[in-house]
Amino acid sequence: MLDQALTRLEEAARHLQLDGDVLEKLKYPRETTKTRLMIRMDDGSRKSFMAWRCRYDDTRGPTKGGIRFHPEATMDEVETLAFWMTFKCAVMNLPYGGGKGAVQVDPHTLSKAELERLSRAYMQAFSHIIGPDRDIPAPDVYTNSMIMGWMADEYASIVGRVSPAVITGKPIALGGSLGRDDATARGGFYLLRHLETELGLSRGATVAIQGFGNAGTHMARLLAGAGYRIVAVSDSRGGIHAPSGLDVERLIAAKRNGSLKTLAGAGIRTIEGEAITAVECDVLVPAALENLIHEGNAAAVRARVIVELANGPITPEADTILERKGVAVLPDILANAGGVTVSYFEWVQNRQGLYWTAEEIHSRLRAVMENEGRSVWDLARQRRIGVRTAAYVHALSRLAEAIEAHGTQQFFTS
Ligand code: GLU
Question: If pLDDT is split at 50, 70 and 90, which confidence band does 414 have?
């Protein structure tokens, strides 16, 4: 996966006059730590889980990125996600490098007490590389504010002081920020609204959402509230499609009660697997995992616009096919950067000890999404390149400036 992701870096580098040291510096993760976490289960038995934390690059600041709990997590995936975080933070001009962590576990099979022990074990294992000025975790796939709260608490006991800025996405009661829960979707939503005219979208435009977790549900609510019509939604257990539109609150209730598919009936048909990618719609929103759209299904995509709320949902081969078809892709490192942007706001609030209102958070988020989104969009037009490549060029020029400012003697011992 990392090799695939690096093709995007190489492509962007072709559009900039870069010192060779810069590219060399960004081609490898700076450090990846791997540990086996061992916990006691409720029934007294023992279980162990592989866990990683990657600090990919810290030239622009402490490394930043979520921790994922997923049964199929691998070290290669963690390093790739940390590479994407490096570019995401640079696109948004956040004073951070990129990092990521994971535990190879299906959290749905654990009791709440087991989940807490696993979360605390993670912090115990990695506390030596984590810190408010070093590496700052956050939620990701199948982790949430409750888990961040346990980890913040564990870190405080290890270092012997309260240190809320060590982790973001915490519960509000422990120094979390208002507006962090829906920030990923809200950022993508602000970006899409800002570019509506350029993308040729009008009121009543139809939307299909793949993935109905935190990002997907909030995106459905925001888009429906703005007059978009949600025509298809799916999650790991399948989905539904209704050309006349779906009611978002009913979708959320169905998901809570077990499955989206329970809504199937007159005018609502069920869909399986990747079929949602071929649904007739204006906007397709991948909001789950990597590699959803690949060489084998890209040609069948019918959407005109794709908003990547997931990280890495389109492979490089699929990108080429979509570009040829004229599909506009708002890429992950820009479109889903609302999450880490509000994480940054949370970290700032923790350090200054002064907290902002939800309105302040929203308006600051909107400003960043619109400014950086506009710069990327204009760059794409000026240079006649795809929006993804433009986002990488935009980020890479910031990264290169920071690497050069440090002095390359810093990185390559002669
Ligand atoms: N996991 C999110 C992402 O992939 C958020 C990271 C953060 O807030 O640090 O961008």
Answer: low
